[in-house]
What does this fold into?
Amino acid sequence: MKIEKKLKIIKSQLPESVVLVAVSKTKPIELILEAYKSGHRVFGENKIQEMVMKWELLPKDIEWHMIGSVQRNKVKYMAPFVSLIHGVDSLKLLIEINKQAKKNNRIINCLLQVHIAKEDTKQGFNLSELDLIFEKLNSFENILVKGLMGMATFTSNALLIDSEFKLLKSKFDLYKSNKKEFDILSMGMSGDFKNAIVNGSTMIRIGSKIFGERN
Ligand SMILES: *Cc1c(COP(=O)(O)O)cnc(C)c1O
It folds into this structure.
C-alpha cells in the first residue's frame, strides 16, 4: 500500500484535534518526500544527526520533532530548526537546550518525558522528580514546555497500557490547570494509539504503520 493511502487511513481514525507525527527514523529521504507530497508536514526522528541530515535535504516547511533520548552535546546541531523536543528527561538537558535556544535567538518547544512503563530501559522522569522539575520551568527563558510525553510498556496486556496512559493523563491535567501553555500530551504509537486517544492523547507518534517495519 502507498504511504499516502496509509496516512489517509490513520488520519481518518483520528479526532481532528490529534496531531500525527510521522516517525521517519531509519527511513530514506524518498519515503519522507512521498509523505510530504501527500500533504504531510510533521515528522519525528530519534537521532539528532540523522534528523539534521534530513532537514538539510528536505523542504524547509517540514516540522521536525525529536522524539528520542537527547545527547546534550548534540543539542546545538538541532537548535536552529527543531520544532518540538519530546524526550526531555533531565534538568541538565533543559539547561543545555535553553542555552542553545538563546544562542539561536529562539524559544524551543519541549515536552517532559515521563517514565510510565514497567521497563527500566524507557527514559523519563519518575513522578516525584516531575513535580520538582515543574517548579523550575519558569526559569528557562528560551524554553516553552508545552506538555508531557510518555511511552507505555511494550506488552499485549491492554489493561496495563490503559492504566499507564490514564496515569499520564491525570498528571497532565493536574499541571495543565496551573500552566496554560500545557496543551500537548504526546502518547500513542503504531501498536497502542487507539488506546492513547481514548485516554486523551493530543499527539501520536506513528512509524511502522506508515513507513513499514524497521530493520
Ligand atoms: C520509534 C518510535 C515511535 C514509533 O514507533 P512505531 O511503533 O513504529 O509506531 C514512537 N515514539 C518513539 C519515542 C519512538 O522511538
User: Anything to note?
Assistant: Residues 23, 25, 46, 67-68, 151, 189-191, 205-209 surround pyridoxal-5'-phosphate (CB under 6 Å). The longest strand covers residues 143-150.
